[in-house]
Design brief:
The complex is a heterodimer of chains A (622) and B (82). Chain A is an all-alpha fold. Chain A is built from 28 helices and no strands. In chain B, 82% of the residues lie in helices and 0% in strands. In chain B, helix 2 (27-50) runs antiparallel to helix 3 (54-81). Chain B starts with a helix and ends with a helix. Classes of the chains: A mainly alpha (622), B mainly alpha (82).
């Protein structure tokens, strides 16, 4: 079906152009208007990089706040479709809950009525082309500037200019068109007429993907006498249904939450439209009353249409608010949350890709998802149960008691749960970097990619250990088992410390705490080497066995250092100046030795694994 | 433990700052980090006091030593920044 859409649309347009040059002006007006919307959207995208994201997070703490934010953002952006698609992006990224998303959509439906006021108030009475031209001319100067903010303002200004220019051309087209086409012929008496025009409004908005553009068409056709006031009301109702198409299209690439929001939008707008159609007569009377009260002339149908648009959208929100929880229940029942597949990216999807504001946050969550998968696999690879280790009072004791083989095909699990996610992250960061991001934003994105790379490296190191871990930790074999238990304990401790850091409130934690682990790792690494030397001298370990163990311990300490680097870069201070302080205060590798050598007394062996008290069994380490 | 390395990093930071390639560090930034480090040191002291396992206690003492060193470095930096 979709493959016919483009040729059919082009054929219809060409046919219309063949028969009427005025159709060209209207179509060009619509095209310029939509182009303006695209420019406006591009302009706002350039404002991204965290500001909008932080605003949204703060602004959606409660339903009233979400509604207010929807009203405000749609008034500023002049596009409920854009707000709904951004909201889908945020929902997909897991930044806001569904209830906040629906609140924003409710607010957007009220905010979008400001467009009708603007068009009715200025679009048909002011020579808007006079504003459009200077705006477009000025915008192009700004668009070529280096500063991202100024370029964003340029795009937004140009977008507004094109919106105004589009309105002007549509108006001109309809003015000339009114003698040739009689839109009134679609008019049918009673309810059928209302339904026909509602459908026409829906179809027009679906085609133009902008209820604003439809409102302009309605107002211009109304002003040109092509349609009656009643037809216009029905068209406006239809436009409210049609405007959900952008969200529906936007949700196609989104996860289940994004789809739920698009369905909520459709249900809300359809119910509002149905209520408006059923109560069209009292609504019309209310419009007349309000118009008379605020001094709008009885014959000023453009302004009255704006009043109608506002009343029925506000009414829709007032009616649906008490039913919000039921609406959520219905939607959650219709679109069931899929059973999570840990091997697939949770947060990186097409909807997030569309908006840079959501990218960094989604990427951070996906990297954490990768880390979770990796930790699960690392601990299984070490024959350790994650829950038991992380809940343990004494990790060394828990490790000593972990002698049951945990069945895991580490290579297969690595491919399925680690490599797949890592590939998605690399692909995503590459695309994110292509979007002319600000250097600081790009640095943060690439830092997260490097964090992912280190996570993968850690798992690879553990893969090397797996064979001997299985051989020496599923039953006690004396010295070798003690040595491997030591490595397992140290890795588990690092993972537990990182977890502790992650659970601490960001304002209370510092990545400098990890230096304490770094000192410990170097100390443990040195004492392990000394211990192996001693065991060889005492004849408790063969040189061959020692070589195998030292190879494995090199991988183990490499994994520990990588884990620390992962945590240090992931949990780095978000404030640039604070991050700079942390970087300056971080101990350099050679300083770790100084802290270690300044110790009052050597603490080795610190792994509490019993090696010093080990039996004299000679472990054959492969 | 000397502070030569930290002094050299701070001097390199000042150069970067002059060329507009670093973020300006204010006293409040160092104070916040210092407060986090002191908080950690205090937590470690409490943990040491309540731990009975000798080995764990020894590890915690080593950590406290590092934490104390970090506090000293941050205090030195605060003095230089002020």
């Amino acid at each position: 079906m979709r493959k016919f859409y483009l040729p059919v649309a082009i054929a219809v347009l060409l046919l219309a152009f063949w028969f009427s040059s005025d159709a060209q002006e209207i179509a060009a007006g619509v095209a310029i208007f939509l182009f303006g919307m695209i420019m406006l959207e591009d302009g706002f995208r350039l404002f991204g990089g965290g500001t909008l994201e932080r605003l949204l997070e703060r602004a959606t703490g409660s339903t009233p706040k979400s509604i207010l934010f929807g009203i405000f953002s749609t008034t500023v952006l002049q596009s409920s479709s854009l707000v709904s698609v951004i909201t889908i992006g945020f929902l997909s990224a897991g930044l806001i809950p569904l209830i906040s998303g629906i609140g924003i959509i409710f607010g957007a439906n009220i905010g979008t009525t400001t467009g009708a006021w603007l068009v009715a108030g200025f679009g048909l009475k002011v020579k808007i082309a006079a504003y459009a031209m200077p705006m477009i001319a000025l915008s192009i100067i700004l668009v070529f500037q280096q500063s991202k903010l100024i370029r964003g303002i340029g795009y937004a200004l140009g977008g507004l200019g094109f919106l105004f220019l589009g309105i002007h051309h549509m108006k001109e087209g309809f003015d000339a068109f009114k003698d040739q086409i009689d839109l009134a012929r679609f008019a049918l008496p009673g309810a059928i007429g209302l339904i026909v025009y509602t459908l026409l409004g829906t179809i027009a908005t679906v085609i133009m993907q902008s209820s604003h553009a439809t409102m302009v068409l309605i107002l211009t056709a109304l002003a040109a006498g092509q349609i009656t006031y009643e037809n216009a009301l029905a068209l406006a109702i239809g436009a409210n249904i049609g405007t959900t198409i952008t969200a529906i299209i936007g949700s196609l690439g989104a996860n289940f939450q994004g789809k739920r929001l698009a369905l909520a939008h459709l249900v809300f707008n359809s119910v509002t439209a149905a209520v408006a159609l059923v109560f069209i007569i009292p609504l019309r009377e209310a419009v007349d009353f309000v118009s008379a009260t605020v001094g709008i002339a009885a014959g000023d149908f453009a302004m009255k249409l704006a009043v109608f648009h506002t009343i029925f959208n506000v009414l829709g929100v007032v009616l649906m608010l008490p039913l919000l929880q039921r609406l959520i229940g219905f939607i959650e029942h219709r679109i069931v949350e899929p059973v999570p597949d840990v091997s697939q990216p949770y947060y990186l999807n097409d909807a997030v890709d569309e908006f840079p504001q959501t990218m960094e946050s989604a990427l951070r969550k996906e990297v954490l998802h990768l880390y979770d998968n990796a930790v699960e696999l690392i601990l299984k690879g070490l024959n350790l149960d994650r829950e038991r280790v992380l809940e343990a009072d004494s990790i060394a004791e828990t490790v000593r008691k972990s002698r049951t083989l945990i069945e895991v095909d580490i290579d297969e699990e690595y491919e399925r749960r680690v490599k797949t996610l890592y590939s998605a992250i690399v692909d995503f960061t590459t695309r994110a970097g292509d979007k002319r991001a600000a250097p600081e934003y790009a640095d943060r994105i690439y830092n997260l990619r490097d964090v992912s790379s280190k996570i993968v490296q850690t798992v690879k190191s553990i893969k090397h250990l797996r064979k001997n871990i299985v051989a020496y930790t599923t039953r006690s074999q004396g010295t070798a088992t003690d040595l491997y238990d030591g490595l397992r304990t140290e890795i588990a401790r690092i993972i537990a410390e990182i977890r502790k850091l992650s659970l601490t409130e960001p304002e209370d934690r510092s990545t400098l705490w990890l230096d304490q682990e770094r000192v410990q790792i170097e100390q443990d690494s040195r004492s392990t080497a000394e211990q192996v030397d001693r065991l060889i001298r005492e004849g408790k370990l063969t040189p061959q066995a020692a070589t195998s163990f030292l190879n494995d311990s090199a991988y183990a300490y490499s994994a520990m250092r990588d884990l620390i680097e992962v945590a240090r870069n992931y949990y780095i201070e978000p404030d640039d100046a604070m991050a700079e302080v942390e970087r300056l205060l971080t101990l350099e590798d050679e300083e770790l030795d100084e802290v270690f050598s300044d110790s009052d007394a050597p603490i080795a062996p610190s792994r509490d694994n019993g090696v010093t008290k080990a039996s004299s069994n000679i472990g054959r380490v492969e | 433990m000397g502070l030569k390395k930290l002094a050299s990093k701070l001097s390199e930071y000042n150069e970067r700052l002059e060329h507009g390639k670093a973020h300006k560090i204010k006293v409040v930034h160092v104070e916040k980090i210092l407060s986090k480090l002191r908080g950690k040191a205090s937590d470690l002291e409490s943990e040491i006091a309540s731990t009975k396992n000798d080995d764990k206690k020894a590890r915690l003492k080593q950590k406290l030593k590092t934490a104390t060193e970090q506090v000293r470095r941050a205090e030195w930096m605060l003095d230089k920044i002020s």
